[in-house]
């Protein structure tokens, strides 16, 4: 594994209980809430601010901050923003994660490989029962299980795609419209 890939995984895995020494940038953003994995029979806590971060990545970061954390993306996709005439949507691809940007600002983080976990520890490849244990019952639309932010229902989500009883993809962030 290259040093760059190891660094990316270390940064992203901070959400799964990795090394959490204070960093110079920590005071510049809110600290995600500590999450307790529920024991059998206990209901998971409702989504909170900490659920909308993946490691050091969170909504509102600009492209410079993403580059400082992850380096240059492996690939970039650019398309017109249908909700903002003249605006652009960008997807910066890295191993196991895609950073979704509206113009120059992060609005979402998509996980498509097992190397990165959500703030509650969910990974691509986990069984569907783990989703329920960590997040509770979901509003489901086919394979997509959606958990919404009680402070901003329908616009701020954790969306988990489940196929054949396993997590196939995870999206954390805002819904554009």
What does this structure look like?
By secondary structure, the protein is α+β, with helices and mostly antiparallel strands. The radius of gyration is 16 Å and the shape is globular. It has one domain: protein yfey like fold (Sandwich). The chain is built from 3 helices and 10 strands; from the N terminus they run αββαββββαββββ. A hairpin with a 2-residue loop joins strand 9 and strand 10. Mean pLDDT is 81; it is low at 1-39. It has an 8-stranded antiparallel β-sheet, with helices on one face. 15% of the residues lie in helices and 31% in strands. It has helices spanning 3-12, 63-70, 128-135; strands at 53-54, 57-58, 75-80, 88-94, 97-102, 105-111, 139-141, 144-148, 156-163, 166-174. Residues 20-44 are annotated as: Disordered.
Question: Which features does this protein show?
Answer:
31% strand; 177 residues; 10 strands; eight-stranded antiparallel sheet; two-stranded antiparallel sheet; disordered N terminus; alpha+beta; protein yfey like fold
CATH class: Mainly Beta
Rg, rounded, reads: 16 Å
**CATH A-level architecture:** Sandwich
Poorly predicted parts: 1-39
Look up the CATH topology: protein yfey like fold
Number of separate strands: 10
End-to-end gap? 39 Å
Residue fraction in strands? 25-35%
Helix content: 10-25%
Total individual domains: 1
Major pleated sheet: 8 strands, antiparallel
């Amino acid at each position: 594994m290259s040093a760059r890939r190891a660094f990316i995984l270390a940064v992203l895995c901070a959400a799964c209980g990795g090394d959490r020494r204070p960093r110079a940038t920590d005071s510049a953003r809110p600290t995600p809430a500590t999450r307790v994995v529920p024991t059998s029979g206990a209901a998971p806590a409702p989504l909170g601010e900490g659920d909308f971060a993946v490691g050091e990545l969170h909504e509102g970061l600009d492209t410079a901050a993403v580059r400082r954390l992850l380096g240059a993306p492996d690939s970039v996709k650019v398309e017109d923003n249908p909700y903002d005439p003249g605006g652009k949507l960008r997807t910066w691809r890295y191993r196991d994660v895609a950073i979704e940007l509206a113009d120059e600002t992060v609005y979402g983080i998509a996980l498509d490989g097992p190397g990165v976990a959500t703030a509650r520890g969910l990974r691509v490849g986990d069984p569907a029962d783990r989703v329920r244990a960590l997040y509770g019952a979901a509003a489901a639309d086919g394979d997509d299980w959606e958990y919404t932010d009680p402070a901003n229902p329908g616009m701020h989500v954790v969306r988990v795609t489940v196929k054949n009883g396993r997590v196939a993809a995870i999206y954390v962030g805002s819904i554009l419209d």
